[in-house]
Design a protein that fits this description.
Helix content is about 35%, strand content about 15%. It has about 300 residues and is α/β, with parallel strands linked by helices. It has a 6-stranded parallel beta sheet, with helices on both faces. A 3-stranded antiparallel beta sheet has the order 5-4-6. It is elongated. It is an enzyme of class 2 (transferase).
């Protein structure tokens, strides 16, 4: 049986309340040098659910852990069946107003960088450049034996060929690209191996229970050191991978702003938490600053 990773956090009553005042966010952006840290909440308006918000996937879904994935062939069969089906929807998701606003802020020189905890590639699709993918990306696959990287679309083609007629109906899609399928629906789904060495293939993402590569963490820490302020978008900051950068910024005396409808684990470190829908909030901020937001995709 898969064990549920520790992902919960219960807000305490002493946390500062959220606000609907966008002025602190607009003021920080007008100064420039803002480092964005985004989470699953920025992609919900693209049809990808978050983990912990209203209707979040954790209420019905246990994310794959690194220990489960590497521990047995059946776990990998279940993962790839669910992920393969989820990719058909996940891979077609489009950037929303929040992603487009972040890209617009970047084009106008207001940002010092973008760190995302998401694995969906939607910041880049909206036109953001130099995005640091803290937890990797689902559009790449890596062999655990020889380290060869390959495009996800190539793996999708191979899985389609190996599993002709695999068309189960999923109960939902999750932020990690995993579709909700029963073991009966997974059935005898066929998993393919590395074309170079025959090793185990894994998506190039950081599973729960797996550590973010140290050099990537240090790069993010350097971005925090160089930034004038930190703007958190759509993250509950429940896990340490993102919270540590909030703590670092606060300890350095840098303003921390959060836009998230629900309370976050970083609220006590923030100048303000704006409790508004992200797309509308960031579009409104862009309007105040005279920054046009369009649907231009990355080249």
């Amino acid at each position: 049986m898969r064990m549920r990773p520790t992902l919960s956090w219960t807000p305490t009553e002493d946390l500062p309340p959220g606000t609907t005042d966008l002025a602190p966010v607009a003021d920080a952006l007008s100064t420039g040098g803002v480092l964005v840290l985004s989470g699953a909440g920025i992609s919900t308006e693209s049809g990808i659910p978050d983990y912990r918000g209203e209707g979040g996937s954790l209420s019905r879904h246990t994310p794959m852990t690194y220990q489960d994935f590497t521990g047995g062939a059946q776990a990998r069969r279940r993962y790839w069946a669910r992920s393969h089906l989820g990719w058909r929807t996940f891979g077609r998701a489009l950037p929303n107003a929040g992603h487009r606003a972040v890209a617009a802020f970047g084009r106008h020189g207001l940002l010092s960088g973008v760190i995302t905890q998401n694995v969906d590639g939607l910041h880049q699709a909206a036109g953001s450049e130099g995005v640091v993918e803290l937890h990797g990306s689902l559009d790449r696959v890596v062999c655990l034996s020889c380290g060869t990287f390959s495009p996800r679309r190539e793996l999708a083609r191979r899985l389609e060929e190996a599993n002709a007629g695999f068309e189960p109906v999923a109960a939902g899609i999750n932020p990690d690209g995993d579709a909700d399928l029963t073991d009966e629906q997974v059935g005898d789904f066929r998993v393919v191996s590395c074309t170079v060495c025959g090793g185990i293939l894994k998506p190039d993402v950081v599973f729960f229970g797996e550590t973010v590569p140290p050099q990537r963490v240090e790069h993010c820490r350097e971005l925090v050191r160089e930034a004038a302020s930190l703007l958190v978008l759509g993250s509950s900051l429940t896990v340490m991978s993102g919270l540590r950068f909030v703590r670092q910024a606060a300890q350095a005396g840098k303003p921390v702003l959060i836009v998230n409808r629900d309370a976050t684990r970083g609220d006590r470190h923030a100048l303000a938490r704006v409790a508004l829908p992200l797309g509308a909030a960031l579009t409104a901020v862009a309007g105040r600053l005279g920054v046009p937001v369009d649907g231009r995709a990355a080249a």
